[in-house]
Specification:
Elements: E1 16-20, H1 27-43, E2 48-53, E3 58-61, E4 78-80, E5 87-90, E6 94-100, H2 110-126, E7 133-135, E8 138-146, E9 149-161, E10 164-172, E11 192-193, H3 205-220, E12 229-230
Parallel strand pairs: 1-2, 1-12, 3-4, 9-11
Antiparallel strand pairs: 2-6, 3-5, 6-10, 7-8, 8-9, 9-10
Helix pairs in contact: 2-3
Length: 235
């Protein structure tokens, strides 16, 4: 049984809620939900939230996006994201994780937060036998393919307002990789993109969600993923 957040006392309210949406969520709707939740977290009226979802095919432009990197502006809708970073693609088969956390009790350290998001994805991919790595000067996580080739399997872009984070990560499970050809992903031309399925791991989104939840607790320590689940449609 889901308990409405407003009925929870400070002693019983879970530290983090988890929400998983099965149907694709329109990007403007997701932005509105995040804005509302970030305000509620800062006001102390809602706990932190990790939201796992998919979007319909679209491109997003971060605050550092170079217009020259949008190669097919009429292919899919293009949305200004308000997060850090450049152009990225979202679409079916990609698990997006929006992470809304209060950083005040977590040390007010944005770099540490980004590092932990990277660790979260590294551990998640390790559960499927995929070794993903950081690269200096390149945002996201990369998979060595041999012969000097490295492909990007996950992207990270965050925003922080009054020490509450939002936006987050995207992990390529089985998206249409050709859809990335309409942009220069994150402004990086010398490398490609990949996915779990492209690497030969035919896993379901439900399996990925389980791995994400298990890895989260290992990285974020006391922020255990055992909070009240949010039903679809509730911020």
């Amino acid at each position: 049984m889901t308990i409405p957040i407003s009925s929870l006392s400070e002693q019983t309210r879970p530290s983090i809620d988890w929400r998983i949406d099965d149907a694709p969520v329109a990007y403007p709707d997701a932005l509105a939900v995040m804005e509302d939740r970030v305000a509620a977290i800062r006001a102390g009226t809602a706990p932190d939230l990790v939201w796992l979802l998919e979007h319909p095919p679209l491109y997003t432009a971060g605050t550092s996006a170079n217009p020259a990197d949008l190669l097919a502006p009429d292919r899919f809708p293009v949305h200004a994201a308000g997060r850090g970073g450049q152009y990225t693609y979202h679409g079916p088969g990609q698990r997006v994780g929006y992470v809304m956390l209060d950083l005040i009790p977590r040390g007010r350290d944005v770099r540490r937060h980004v590092h932990r998001l990277e660790d979260w994805l590294i551990r998640t991919l390790d559960a499927f036998g995929v070794r993903a790595e950081r690269r200096a000067g390149r945002v996201g996580l990369w998979v060595p393919r041999g012969g000097g080739r490295e492909d990007k399997i996950a992207a990270i872009g965050v925003r922080v307002r009054r020490w509450v984070t939002f936006h987050g990560v995207s992990l390529n499970v089985d998206p249409d990789l050709e859809h990335f050809s309409g942009i220069v992903p994150c402004g990086i031309r010398a490398h490609g993109v990949t996915s779990l399925w492209d690497l030969g791991h035919a896993v379901s989104m439900a399996e990925v969600d389980t791995a994400l939840r298990e890895a989260f607790s290992g990285v974020f320590g006391r922020d255990q993923p055992g909070g009240t689940p949010c039903p679809p449609g509730r911020p």
